TrEMBL record:
Belongs to the WSCD family. PANTHER family: WSCD FAMILY MEMBER CG9164 (PTHR45964:SF5). This is Oidioi.mRNA.OKI2018_I69.chr2.g4131.t1.cds. Coiled coil: none annotated. InterPro entries: P-loop_NTPase (IPR027417), Sialate-O-sulfotransferase (IPR051589). It comes from Oikopleura dioica (Tunicate).
Amino acid sequence: MSQDFHIGIKSHNTHHVSRCHAAVLVIRNPYDTLKAEFNRRISQMKTGNGQAAHTDTIDPEYFRSDKWRRYVRGTSKTWSNFYKGAITGLKNQGKGFHLLFHDLLKTQKVEEMRKLYDFLEEEASEDFKVDNVEERLNCIENQKLDKYKRKNQEFDFDLFLPDEIKAINELVEGYKEFFKNNSIEFPEETVHNWLK
């Protein structure tokens, strides 16, 4: 393996697309994404602790604020543009990509990790070999990672207003069409279930 070889770079923007050989894109239900990322940002702002912000929960009153309303409007568009931009850029450059659906990682983690391994092995060829793959997949199957998750918050109000739901649902429908028009395999039932 060469000295400057990287197996991956985690990024929340598409500027690495031109520098990568291939990409793995983790895509999540936009409603869950908005809630989780807003929670993380507010928590980090309040505590200054970036690590804890991934598991902390914030006071539900933040989700009644104008800040939340602005966040939903702006970030839902960012969510939509990110994946379309990354996929279009990768396709235009003839680069491979693999979509990992967050929902399926929760319900079919071993199957999804096997698909990811196959993709990485194909894209990196001789640079990516892992011994004892089945043993590692078995380990993944038996892991309990709940301590790395944010506790589920119950709300006695709707987080999203009717016009926000309409706009986000349109983005989801746009993705279904985008995937179909670009012959990209996707779990139709999973994506359909994102709709509110």
